[in-house]
């Protein structure tokens, strides 16, 4: 329903306001509340060799996430620098930044030290690729508040890069690399800290596009716009012998675009425990970002213009950062490596919500035909069935158990039998003696007569 509404009516609409933790800008005169972060600036006296040294204030970790649906933003704090330390589960090389680009679906951790005078300072997030009119509402401001501060934030907002300066953004993205010295778990299955020695099994070159057909806007990958089926793909894959008409396997053009847009439910095969190279090409004039369920991207390259096999010469294969969501710049490309060690049916999609809802997605089926050992867990017992896969008939209720017959009366014991026999004999002798006695009385009476 949402996709149909967007395709017919709402495809030109874009989010027109930015929030920080669900609150509007500090500078909005209509705002009833705004976001504020309180920090402490503690100085301690340490006596070393009879000399006093002041230790700077506390250092804070800020987790910055872009949970919006369309706009990338640049983040900065007035009079404070940020030390980048992590992104989406990977420790990064520690670089000091005055501002940081955060794209849709991405997260970063930065360290900020409260080393300025006790006061309040502006925190600013400004949309990328937004013109001056749009920036009137696509800029959100909050406050960094020092404990015991009585001085409100003032002065001009901290300057950020030009929203349309793609070279700045690409340069910053290339500088974000994997930290090879920190102690942490590594997603590289080969146990090394680089991917320079891997052998690629497959390459996908995926180009986005937007088209209008039959009065409806659709987004596509290689001119294929995804159609959501009534039957979930994993159900069809498991129960219907590889799809059985629900989806089309390996008919997707994984390295080139079709001449015209088609609609369909296409699935591509990924080689289990193979290395996949994906090149994302963005032919649009807006930022895009991509996410693949179940895996991390080894981000090996960014570039402007068209990607060619010669572009591989610019790849960083030594310390590419591993992340879950990667950005693609307007009229540019991004290259990633993926190690397909997780069997299943995995969704590859644009994180721009409008692009995703209107067809910019694809499924990768990572499969190993060897059943020993099993590569996936069986479906859970409480699995919900739908579409072409109907729930199996319920087992008949168990038959009622027959009611047991009442137990037979217990047979008399031998002692009881003996007692009854003796009683019977006694009664019989008594009857005989009584009869003889009566005869004697009768006879005696007759004798007297």
From TrEMBL:
Q: Which InterPro entries match?
A: Cu-oxidase_2nd, Cu-oxidase_C, Cu-oxidase_fam, Cupredoxin
Q: Where is the composition biased (Pro residues)?
A: 393-410
Which molecular function term from Gene Ontology is one that the record holds? copper ion binding
Q: How is this protein annotated for GO cellular component? A: plasma membrane
Keywords recorded for this protein, A-Z: Glycoprotein
Query: Which parts pass through the membrane?
Result: none
Plastocyanin-like domain location, by residue? 9-149, 263-369
Q: Where is this region: Disordered?
A: 391-416
- What's this protein's family per the entry? Belongs to the multicopper oxidase family.
Protein name in the entry = Monocopper oxidase-like protein SKU5
Please state the gene responsible for encoding this protein.
Answer: LOC107769699
């Amino acid at each position: 329903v949402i996709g149909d509404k967007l395709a017919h009516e709402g495809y030109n609409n874009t989010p027109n306001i930015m929030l920080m933790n669900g609150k509007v800008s500090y500078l909005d005169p209509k705002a009833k509340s705004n976001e504020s972060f309180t920090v402490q600036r503690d100085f301690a006296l340490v006596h070393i060799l009879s000399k006093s040294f002041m230790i700077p204030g506390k250092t804070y970790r800020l987790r910055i996430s872009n949970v919006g649906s369309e706009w990338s933003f640049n983040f900065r704090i007035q009079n404070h620098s940020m030390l980048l330390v992590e992104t989406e589960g990977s420790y990064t090389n520690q670089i000091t930044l005055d501002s940081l680009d955060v794209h849709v679906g991405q997260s970063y951790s930065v360290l900020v030290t409260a080393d300025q005078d006790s006061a309040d300072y502006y925190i600013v997030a400004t949309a990328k690729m937004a013109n001056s009119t749009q920036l009137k509402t696509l800029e959100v401001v909050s406050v960094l508040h020092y404990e015991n501060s009585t001085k409100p934030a003032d002065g001009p907002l901290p300057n950020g890069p030009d929203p349309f300066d793609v070279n700045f953004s690409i340069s910053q993205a290339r500088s974000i690399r994997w930290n090879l010295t920190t102690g942490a778990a590594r997603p590289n299955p080969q146990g090394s800290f680089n991917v320079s020695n891997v052998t690629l099994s497959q390459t996908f070159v995926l180009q986005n596009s937007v088209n209008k057909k039959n009065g409806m806007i659709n987004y596509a990958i290689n001119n294929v716009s995804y159609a959501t089926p009534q039957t979930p793909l994993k159900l069809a894959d498991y129960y219907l012998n590889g799809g059985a008409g629900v989806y089309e396997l390996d008919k997707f053009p994984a390295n080139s675009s079709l001449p015209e847009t088609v609609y369909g439910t296409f699935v591509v095969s990924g080689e289990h425990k193979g290395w996949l190279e994906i090149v994302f090409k963005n032919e649009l004039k807006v930022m895009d970002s991509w996410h693949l369920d179940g895996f991390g991207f080894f981000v090996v390259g960014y570039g402007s213009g068209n990607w060619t096999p010669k572009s591989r010469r610019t790849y960083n294969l030594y310390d590419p950062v591993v992340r879950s969501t990667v950005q693609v710049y307007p009229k540019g490309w991004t290259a990633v490596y993926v190690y397909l060690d997780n069997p299943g049916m995995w969704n590859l999609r644009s994180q721009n919500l409008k692009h995703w809802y209107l067809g910019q997605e694809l499924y990768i089926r990572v499969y190993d035909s060897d059943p020993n050992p099993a590569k996936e867990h069986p479906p859970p017992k409480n699995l919900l069935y739908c579409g072409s896969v109907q729930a199996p008939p319920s087992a008949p209720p168990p038959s009622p158990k027959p009611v047991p017959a009442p137990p037979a009366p217990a047979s008399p014991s031998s002692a009881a039998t003996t007692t009854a026999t003796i009683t019977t004999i006694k009664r019989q002798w008594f009857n005989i003696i009584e009869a003889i006695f009566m005869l004697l009385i009768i006879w005696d009476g007759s004798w007297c007569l």
